[in-house]
UniProtKB/TrEMBL annotation:
Keywords: Membrane, Transmembrane, Transmembrane helix. This is DUF3152 domain-containing protein. Residues 128-291 form the DUF3152 domain. The chain crosses the membrane at residues 23-44. Pfam families: DUF3152. Residues 46-63, 71-120 have a biased composition (Low complexity). The lineage of its organism: Bacteria, Bacillati, Actinomycetota, Actinomycetes, Micrococcales.
């Protein structure tokens, strides 16, 4: 006897249905694998570990933050820069040759903050803006000086700020060769060469906006000088108009150069030794004399 036919024939998936089913299965498997991996990492204590990219970013930021600043470069005159070594008149700013170098710029200590702020408000700004190109001064004509250590340096002046590179270089040469300077104190000498590639360090006289860029990460606020690694940066406004702490422009220029080069030689900021004494050249004199008298030179009774 023939059985009756089924009322509902078996369901067969189309090709599209089979592909959809396979895709869903793969998605489920992937999610399961990810979930298991996350659980394993959490149990192993790695769940919160930063990615390699994040670690690299953090390391880079730390390196950048460790750079030295002078009078503004390495250390600078800036109230926002640090007062630590490697800082200049901006408060610890110096253009850095390497990520491990800290800009040095002059920055006031907490007990001198108010006085420094008052001084800053009185500082003259010329409004000069250079064009970002440079004129290098020629090399010294003389033979290599005699000293235990001879440091070669180059001088460059930004175009557009109405300063002659050869005149600036001549004044800097006289400052560095002065018997009251680092040459007598440390048995060193300085020789000007015609290119930064040949030099141990470079002195750049730059307009305020350019000086700010060269002094980063020190905050020179368009006001201060700095030393960063092998670069000494002199703000053209300070070269032309000094600060209220000085009344003699050539004396202030000598202080600018000796302070920032002092950072290059490894000297940190100093404090006033006593009321009425000559200020140490490594005191942030652009901002405050702390009761001392202005002094441009390393070799004084007031110390460094």
């Amino acid at each position: 006897m023939t059985p009756p036919p089924d009322d509902h024939p078996p369901l067969e998936l189309t090709r599209r249905g089979r592909l959809l089913r396979t895709g869903l299965v793969l998605v489920v498997l992937i999610l399961l694998v990810l979930a298991v991996t996350a659980v394993v990492r959490a149990l192993a204590g790695d769940g919160d570990a930063p990615s390699a990219a994040a670690s690299a970013t953090s390391a880079t930021a730390e390196d950048a933050g460790s750079r030295d600043a002078s009078d503004a470069g390495g250390a600078s005159d800036d109230p926002g820069a640090s007062d630590s070594g490697g800082a200049s008149d901006a408060g610890g700013a110096e253009p850095a040759e390497a990520a491990s170098a800290t800009p040095e710029a002059e920055t006031p200590a907490s007990d001198a903050k108010a006085a420094a702020t008052s001084t800053t408000e009185e500082i003259e700004r010329t409004g000069d803006t250079g064009d970002g190109t440079w004129t290098l001064a020629e090399a010294d004509d003389g033979s290599e000086p005699e000293a235990g250590t001879v440091h070669t340096y180059a001088v460059r002046v930004e175009s557009g700020i109405d300063l002659d590179a050869e005149e600036v270089a001549g004044e800097i040469e006289g400052i560095l060769a002065d018997e009251r300077g680092w040459t007598s104190l440390e048995d060193v000498a300085f020789q000007r060469v015609a290119s930064a590639e040949q030099a141990d360090f470079t002195i750049s006289l730059a307009s305020p906006p350019t000086a700010d860029e060269l002094c980063l990460p020190a905050r020179t606020q368009g006001l201060w000088n700095c030393r960063v690694g092998e670069d000494v940066v002199l703000n053209s406004d300070r070269w032309k108009t000094m600060t209220p702490t000085y009344e003699d422009l050539p004396a202030y220029r000598a202080y600018m150069v000796n302070h920032e080069v002092g950072h290059f030689l490894g000297h940190d900021h100093a404090s006033c030794g006593g009321e009425g004494q000559p200020a140490p050249v490594m005191l942030q004199q652009s901002m405050s004399l702390q009761g001392c008298e202005p002094n441009s030179w390393p070799l004084t009774d007031g110390g460094r």
